[in-house]
Amino acid sequence: MVVLGPFDRRTARTRCLACARRKIKCEGGSPCQYCMKRKQQCVPQAIQPQASIVFVNASAPCKRSGCLPLPPQLPTLRLCPKVSEGSSALFVKHFFSGFLARNDFGGPLDLGTIILEFQRSPSMYHASIALGALDLSRRPVPTLPPERKDAAVEAFTAYHTSIAKLKAEIISNKTPRDVNLWTTFFLGLFELMHDVTGEGWVKHFLYGTSTMLQLRGPEAHIAGPGRSFFLTARVFEICRALIYSEPTFLCQPEWISLTNKIWNEGNNKHWHPKELLFDLMIECSSISDRVWDLLKPGSNFPNMLLHRALFELAAEGFVIRSALADWFANFQKWSAGTGTPISHPSSVLATIYFHGISIYLSGIYDYRAQFNKIPTPTISQAAVQNHVDEILRVTEISLKTGNLAAVLFFFPLRVAGARVMTAREAESICAMLEEIKMRGFVVANAFTANLKFAYPTRAKTRLTITVRGAVEVIPTSAVKFVLDPVVINALPEGQEVVSAERYGNSAWASTARITARDSDGTLQHYFVKVVKRKLAGPRVLGEFSCMSELYKTMPSIVPAPRGSGKCLDSDDYFFLCDYLEIDHRQPDPVRLAESISELHRISVSPTGQFGFHITPYDGKLPLVAKWDSNWVSFYGKLLEGVYKLGILANGHWKRLDDAMKITLDKVVPRLLNRLYEEGRTVKPCLIHGDLWEENIGTDPRTGNIYIFDSCAYYAHHEMAIGMWRVGHHHMKAKEYRNEYFKLFEPDEPVKEYDDRNRLYSLKEKIMYSAHVPGTKAREQALEDMLYLIRKFVNQA
């Protein structure tokens, strides 16, 4: 039984392993004096976790050497003096006996170190309160203790306090201690339970936990508490790299060899075959990262060497594919030989990660046309389906019966979600993500939003579709899409529908690809979007009008709009345009700049004013875009309208309300009126209105850029670049803005361009918060507004 003594800032010392072996006094510190003289590694003793935790009551007698343990028969947890009063007692107790007990993080959780450091580290103490309070505030408890009513407020207060204490502790210690690592880990979990986008956790883990691990180096994690932390955090770092397609330091040779050193040190009681699988997952991440480096826009890799490099990466993939097959066979033998049940948490994790990485490895090559003529380790659709089935089956059982931390299921569910074949499978994944959300990890919302409309659309049966009012059975490999007669009639005259299949993704519509045959037998392809929700008519009409205006102005970068309107057999509305073979790689900055700058240069407002002739819709939300001859007035109304949408989605926030009022009253006139000084004018340019990476496609054969899903209107040309400053878009890199302004320079005063860009980005950040309530976009918008207010209002 581990005893948690008084939280009275006394320093509890534990001898290092070397001093303990020699049975001499350890002076403490890392390294200690003895180890420094011997020039050897100083490894603290690991405190073995026990089955239960007892908090010592304030009335329990204490001595300088520590607290006397309570009798083991006491049934309740009691707290030490400094946490025995107020709500902190409840939250700390829930953190240890509730949150940690319910969540197995896939590694040997060093509970002994956590409890020891809890008593010594203010940052760990407040982090435990933050997690305990936040988790308790969301638990479905029938009768609420009075302290729980303010649990959420207490959670955020403790979270910010913990961060401040952590900074102070890091500054005072050149090398991060074990407690600092565990604190960053728990604060990262808090982000997953608070931030629905997952952006906060990614930054926290990447720039906090991972960076601190690298600062300490591999040698600090071979044994002792450092070893336990590394094995726990490793799976989170692997999943971060795979889910977000980002590089990981675990691919570096010194970290690859660390796990061998860990298990060769003699303490193998925690070893499980999943550790070998994690090594293979790291190799998959490395291949994916190197493939991206070769094929990303702007890559300077010589074309004459590209085929050879891709061939070698495909060969590496075959080696990993073979290693995965061998691993699974050996895993089954090991399970049978050791009697380890498949329901063991580590075995469950190993099983679903094996199926997930098997699909992921194939996906590295599946979606890139450059591998079409190269043998690759892809797997058949039947094999993919088998892996998907196993992921869904094992995950569903584990969520119902196991105690694996729900966040560990994101990677396999994300991979499976991209490959499911039926609506039932899609609904199953959404249901599991909802269960994960109910367990406190609200970041599941981001995965649901990403997957809900992204399911592949292939099936294996003969399907019936409607063709010009008649029912025809045709052989096809696609999931059927029933075409309304009005949609069919919108096709060019003389064409006959061959097939209609679900295709592509949309957050607010059903989408499909239509194949039609001309009278001479030539096949033509079209894209249709059908909207079934409230206000579908104005939204579809808005998109058709915006795309038509773009096509009329510069047809070389827009798929030709063919029609829109109300369906005959339902209350749905449709939008029809040409289908283009494009991929969604990051657009090449130079070619994108050439296309967009040309669009802005040649466009002419039909009224000579800013705005649009109908209401454009940004996704499902309308923009205030009535004609206005003055850009200052137009942008103020546009921003105010977007802010009202943000309030409807998120509610009022006084600090933001006050800052927005000053921004509209003071900052907008101050910055934008300068555009008109000295006789200057502002040209109304046709802008796309929502030009982020998902609304841009690249022809894989020619490299030509295409834009779609528009909410266009006539605006100051710099307005189009404002959203390229937003953190949740991949096009935030300054390279995109710099290339654009090489071709279409900022207006005078140029020295205030960056401030105008910051001002224009407010529209996108607040609109994003209206689409995805609870994100940090509002906080980011507030920071930008306060910056502009300090610069242009307070100093005026």
Automatic annotation (TrEMBL):
Keyword terms: DNA-binding, Nucleus, Transcription, Transcription regulation
Residue span, Zn(2)-C6 fungal-type domain: 15-43
MF annotations from Gene Ontology: DNA binding; DNA-binding transcription factor activity, RNA polymerase II-specific; protein-ribulosamine 3-kinase activity; zinc ion binding
E.C. code: 2.7.1.172
InterPro entries according to UniProt: Fructo-/Ketosamine-3-kinase (IPR016477), Kinase-like_dom_sf (IPR011009), Zn2-C6_fun-type_DNA-bd_sf (IPR036864), Zn2Cys6_DnaBD (IPR001138)
CDD domains in UniProt: GAL4
Group of enzyme by EC: transferase
Source domain of life: Eukaryota
Lineage: Eukaryota, Fungi, Dikarya, Ascomycota, Pezizomycotina
Reaction equations catalysed: N(6)-D-ribulosyl-L-lysyl-[protein] + ATP = N(6)-(3-O-phospho-D-ribulosyl)-L-lysyl-[protein] + ADP + H(+)
Database matches in SUPFAM superfamilies: Protein kinase-like (PK-like), Zn2/Cys6 DNA-binding domain
Protein known as: protein-ribulosamine 3-kinase
